[in-house]
Every structure is written in C-alpha cells, then in structure tokens.
Amino acid sequence: MRKDYSRHKKIFLVIPVFNEVRIIKEVIAEIKKAGYYHLVIVDDGSKDGTYQAIEGIPCVTALRHKFNCGKGASVKTGIEAALMLGADIIVTLDGDGQHDPLDIKKLICPIERDNFDVVLGSRLINPKGMPKSRLLFNKFGNFYTWVMYGLKVNDSQSGFRAYSRPIASRINPQANRYDFDSEIIKEISFRELRFKEVPIKVRYTKYSMGKQQKQGLKNGVKTALRILWNVID
User: What is the 3-state secondary structure (H, E, C) of the chain?
Assistant: First the structure.
C-alpha cells in the first residue's frame, strides 16, 4: 500500500523548471516515492525538451510558459493552478534535485497542526555541507532582506516553502525572477503573517551547482538592485 500524505488534505507541490530534462523524471519519481501525488510543474520556456518529458506523466499537471519569464513568474503560475485544483496546502521546491522530498512533511506539519500561514525551509539552521560561497551569499541575502523589509529570517533565499490555502490566495508578490523569494519575506512582514522556519537538507551536486540560472553573484546583484528599486519606487 503506497503512502499518500495528500489523502486527508490536498497537498500540492509547485515546481518551476527551466532546462531540467536530465533530472526532472528522477525528481518526480522521488517525490511520488515520498508519498505526494499532486504535482504542478511549470516549464519556463525550456529549450531542451523538459516540457515534452513531463507532459502526460500521471499525477503531474504540466504547464508551460512559451518564453522564459523567470522563476518567480513560474511559481506564481503554479500556485494559481494549484489553488484552482483545490489545494489546501501548497509547497514550492526546485526542480534540480537539490531538495529532499522527505523534508516536505516538516514544512506542512506546522500548517496542519498549529495553523501557521507560511513555513520556510532553511538551509542555514544546519548548514553542514553547504559550500562556503553559498553560505556567505545567503547570509548577505538575509542581512539585505532584513534591512529592506525589517524581518530577520535564517534563509531568505530558500525556494522550499509551504503556504496555507488562505495565504496563498492573499499574497500578491510582484517579482518575477529570483527576487520573488525575498518578496515573500516582505509579504510576511507587511501582512504580519504567522510563519515558522524549519531545517531542510540540501543536496549540492555537480549538476545543480553547474546550473547557470541558479542564484550566483551576477544574478544576486541583479536581485538586490530589483529589490532596492521596488522599495524606493
């Protein structure tokens, strides 16, 4: 008998992907093995056949942006679709295999048990194995987000998060790219949402570390400038 953690509440996983044809089927299989069977995967204009690889897979709602619109835009598309499909709790995670599906339960439990609005997966609560460059980058991101939005969190750049249905319906981040993750912190702060951080494991593989679209120095500077512009605009 298969485990199905989405039997009592509809747990939907929203996964933005861009050129992940090499690994996305493995990611889907691992998520199903962990007991989750409602997946919304948003292909953000991939050129490598990612959409064709996921189209028609059982338990997967495959959506596609014709052009690359950014990670934030893909997450927003996925959340909107999950709400239309009746999601009670929405979990967002990356499509490159960095996130461990066994951690999903950690994110959804505080919402189910204690009625938290948002749960943030944090790599920095226990950063063992995290590359020093990523550790420094994320600490700077935390400091910068705190200065901009007035809320201290352990990992402002994590994309592994869970939202209750009422909050997923209410939040309205405008960011379409990597600044989306920081803008969620703004929403939490300005709306005074109940949130909790939980430790997550991140698997830094040669594949995931080599992804050009991942948040590096260049994208980090662009993200910081976009956040600053949105604050002063």
Answer: CCCCCCCCCCEEEEEEECCCCCCHHHHHHHHHHCCCCCEEEEEECCCCCHHHHHCCCCCEEEEEECCCCCHHHHHHHHHHHHHHCCCCEEEECCCCCCECHHHHHHHHHHHHHHCCCEEEEECCCCCCCCCHHHHHHHHHHHHHHHHHHCCCCCCCCCCCEEEEHHHHHHCCCCCCCCHHHHHHHHHHHHHCCCEEEEECCECCCHHHHCCCCCCCHHHHHHHHHHHHHHHHC
